[in-house]
Input
Amino acid sequence: MLDVPVSEQVLRRSGSSFAMAFRLLPPDERAAMTAFYAYCREIDDVVDLAEDLPSARRGVEAWKREIDLVDAGRAATPLGREVQATVGAFTVGTEPLRLVLEGVRRDLEVTRYETFDELYGYCYHVASAVGQYICAVLGADSEAVRRYAELTGVAVQLTNVLRDVAEDGARGRIYLPLEDMRKFGVREQDVLRARGSERLVALMRFEAVRARELYVMADGILDPHWNRTLYFARALSGIYRDLLDLLEEREFGLQGVAVRLSARRKLSVILRYRLRSLVPSRTALLERRV
Output
């Protein structure tokens, strides 16, 4: 059984409700998810909690070297060794780790995205790579599964963008595509200050439609026979779809009240998808009859 005490401490300190969700997984899968969560959390903190830009860059470079060591089977840090053990156990490889790290590095250099295509590339690094890792740990690998992970990851990150406009604005970052802002007559200052104008809300509803289209496209790509294997990945997607609905209902929190799903609601979504995964799909039943 995989042992990830450092990762578990990071997860516990974070207060994330996903700690409860991870308990629904078998022990080794839970350990792998916990280690990857801890890694993502640590590199996020390298950027967000650094005293200055040079310190943040040094932190990113230090993790780049550590991932090289993980690749060579010689991780030097306690968290690196736990990540190394989980990567090895599930033959995931370090590509998802590198993609996420590159995405985090971009946050040090890029604070604006001109087009949605540019934003898509960023979302792919920081979120689709996470989806690829999750699917691999759950034992699913095919071209369709990888595409599912890509589309779902971008949709999830776009949902995060809509949730975190005020928080990102406080750091001087705007993830909403500039070309879309111009179309809706939204100024940078409106986004940085998260002013709840009709134009900004209309822009965010437009981006929410994009996110929903990506969720639907992802569902259409995935064959029903993956439902049981990937129930946890699908449940995480379901959580963010519920969050997107709540964000739009509450005008994206632009009135100064943060929009978050409760831990209870997240757990109910996960249990719902788990129950669905235990019911044979209509396609599978037809194949069985034939």
User: Anything to note?
Assistant: The domain at 110-290 is CATH 1.10.600.10 (Farnesyl Diphosphate Synthase). The chain has 15 helices and no strands. Residues 70 and 152 are 27 Å apart (CA to CA).
